[in-house]
Design goal:
2 domains; Immunoglobulin-like; eight-stranded antiparallel barrel; alpha+beta; five-stranded mixed beta sheet; 18 strands; about 300 residues; Lipocalin; globular
């Protein structure tokens, strides 16, 4: 095999736990932040670009890690010289235990290389705290998800051919099946015992709950600060909407799996709506287990005069 194939396969393995919401974007790239200390942190960006070159979208850092975080990105793209720059701001959600003012936001400048099928993006970044102090420096190295998709499909075809001659482990085969592998790029899950913090500007939040898999009798209870807001609910394919009234200080929303259904896998999906943002997560929980969504109410920052 060619050396390049080994490199991209290693990258795909590294990226196998990445996720993203279902909304489509003009640009979708994934890879890593390479710190000057040689530390690698998984990284993904999705964004749209308007006619004036202004870009707006999201970044995902440390996906499926203990510090997984989603932030806004805004910046500019010049299609003539393929140069791009953007800055992160305003955290949407995080699994990190750090406080918002302790987060290190990426400020990036780089350039696209290659055509649309093999598009890659490389450049330098500086990590900046809210108080403008530098917290990290390094490189950003990303590739187009279309390129990853093409490679994983080729790899799967080779595995199928090998399987006809020499039996391949069924779990491994299922894991790299394109529709299963690529699903990891389109789902954000919260597992048993995990806690994710989301940041909103509203005092009441709409929540939708539905079974995104096969309807098999999943039963859940949802509590806000220990008080049930949806109790022993049998999750259906049809979305159920509820309104959650939020306190000023603490809003700990717990999702508890009462029954994981016939398939023994809870496939409940939740979508939270703020007037400025949306969050979609999968409650990937074992029976009798729970996960927590910490909803933090933000105040609109006053612009300096």
């Amino acid at each position: 095999m060619k050396k390049g194939f080994f490199i991209i396969f290693s990258m795909m393995s590294f990226l196998s736990q990445f996720s993203q919401e279902s909304k489509e974007f003009d640009y979708e790239l994934l890879g890593a932040l390479v710190l000057d200390s040689n530390q690698l942190i998984s990284y993904k960006i999705v964004f749209n670009s308007n006619d004036n070159g202004f870009i707006e979208g999201y970044s995902y850092t440390d996906l499926s890690g203990e510090n997984e975080t989603k932030s806004y990105i805004r910046g500019y793209y010049n299609p003539k010289n393929k140069e791009i720059q953007f800055k992160e701001s305003d955290i949407l959600y995080t699994k990190s235990k750090f406080l918002p003012d302790e987060f290190c936001f990426v400020s990036f400048k780089g350039q696209f290389k290659g055509d649309s099928k093999k598009k890659s993006l490389e450049g330098d970044f500086i990590g900046i705290y809210d108080d403008r102090d530098t917290c990290a420096t390094g490189k950003v190295k990303l590739v187009s998800t279309k390129f990853v998709e093409k490679k994983i499909k080729k790899l799967y075809k080779k595995v199928v051919k090998i399987d006809k001659i020499k039996k391949v482990d069924s779990i491994v085969k299922a894991e790299i099946k394109p529709e299963n592998y690529l699903k990891k790029f389109s789902e954000t899950s919260i597992k048993s015992g995990e806690k994710v913090s989301v940041y909103v500007y509203t005092n009441k939040m709409k929540m939708e709950i539905w079974d995104y898999g096969k309807e098999d009798g999943d039963v859940i209870t949802i509590l806000n600060n220990g008080i049930p807001i949806l109790e022993n609910y049998s999750v259906k394919k049809k979305k159920k909407a509820i309104i959650v009234h939020l306190n000023d200080d603490k809003n700990l929303i717990k999702i508890v799996t009462i029954n994981s259904g016939k398939l023994k896998t809870n496939t409940t999906k939740l979508k939270l709506y703020d007037f400025r943002r949306e969050y979609e997560v999968i409650a990937d929980l074992e029976e009798g287990k729970e996960a927590t969504i910490n909803v933090v109410r933000l105040k609109v920052k006053k612009q300096p005069k």
